[in-house]
Amino acid sequence: MPSTPALSAPSAGAAFDTTTIDRRKLRARDVLIDIKFCGICHSDIHQVKDEWGGSIFPMVPGHEIAGIVAAVGNDVANFAVGDRVGVGCLVDSCGECEQCRAGEEQFCSKGAVPTYNGRGYDGEPTFGGYSRQIVVSDRFVVRIPDSLELHDAAPLLCAGITTYTPLKHWHAGSGSRVAIIGLGGLGHVGVQLAAAMGAEVSVLSQTLEKKDDGLRFGATHYHATSDPETLAELAGSFDLILNTVSVNLDLEAYLRLLAVDGTLVALGAPSQPASVHPFALIAARRSLAGSAIGGLAATQDMLDFCAEQRIRPQIELIRADQVSDAYSRVERSAVRYRFVIDVATI
Ligand code: NAP
Ligand code: ZN
């Protein structure tokens, strides 16, 4: 069993320890990956702090993984040693249910296995990308196009696919007016994707502090939601709104920004429930929806699209000993715009 250095949180909210973990022996369809870079998603923070409940400790977070194939099992046909590959939020699913067959493994009816803070079908806890190596079934490995640097590819494996999926599902494109709430990790990739798909993109951020960046990422409009008049002026302006904020907002105030038949998609995953009066929906046949990451085929499409369209996250590369500071900056909305761990420093 290969053992590998990792950053591990021993209990909810505790500081990370540098430790070693065991990875399983390669099964016939497994790929062993030398991880080079791993992004820090706000979901890592929610889970390390047990904000959603049910966290499993010790925890090795990380589901934005980019690296190089180091070995493959006997029956792996699609990957070879030396390939540049990625792993996102999932490492297994039943492969047989309607959702898996439709390429939406994230909705597997048996329950997809998350890359960390979950249990495999063998009952063993899963450990993520804040580590030097990982063993993953080949069905959950994607190929990183040659023109994408590994450190840029990493954040796309969650932030990229999470925003790509709803933009595709709700047909963002030429003639559609898309707003993104929150210019953080998800938001800054979402703006680039929506603009590349041809939509007219607006950013709804707390302040105008990041306006120049938002426009550079492809937004046409940028609004500060802290200005009470802004939301009133924007009533009925958007066909699709992606909410990437990690805490609850006044959803009714944002629903009113939708045109008739518009959709507000919950991507951010706050720990507390939110409430909406049905009138906010009834008034213009609006929908309140949600979306979770995306399937494996869509993840590969998204990477290829980013390579073609020259979409890159804006990252800050950090060492393993900077992860706690990075977490505090993400929580203060002071991330520009995704932290990526140089895994060689673990
Ligand atoms: P992030 O980098 O922290 O970005 C969130 C952004 O929300 C911030 O940059 C900030 O943007 C805005 N924000 C923060 N606090 C706010 C407040 N009090 N009021 C208004 N706006 C606020 O986080 P992330 O990594 O993009 O993740 C965002 C959320 O999505 C998290 O809850 C995460 O768990 C969830 N997520 C969901 C999925 C899924 O499949 N649905 C996948 C990945 C992540 P401004 O400074 O521009 O206002
Ligand atoms: Zn994530």
Short description:
With 346 residues, the protein is α/β, with parallel strands linked by helices. The chain has ten helices and 17 strands. The strands form four sheets. Strands 3, 4, 5, 8, 9, 16 and 17 form a seven-stranded mixed sheet that branches. A six-stranded parallel sheet has the order 12-11-10-13-14-15. Strands 1-2 form a two-stranded antiparallel sheet.
From the structure above, extract its key features.
346 residues, alpha/beta, 7-stranded mixed β-sheet, 6-stranded parallel β-sheet, 17 strands, 26% strand, binds NADP nicotinamide-adenine-dinucleotide phosphate, binds zinc ion
Question: SSE order, as H and E?
Answer: EEEHEEEHEEEHEHEHEHEHEHEHEHE
Count the DSSP helices: 10
> Which word captures the global form?
globular
| Span of the ends, CA to CA | 20 Å
Q: Care to count the β-strands?
A: 17
Q: What percent of residues adopt helix (DSSP H or I)?
A: 25-40%
Structural class: alpha/beta
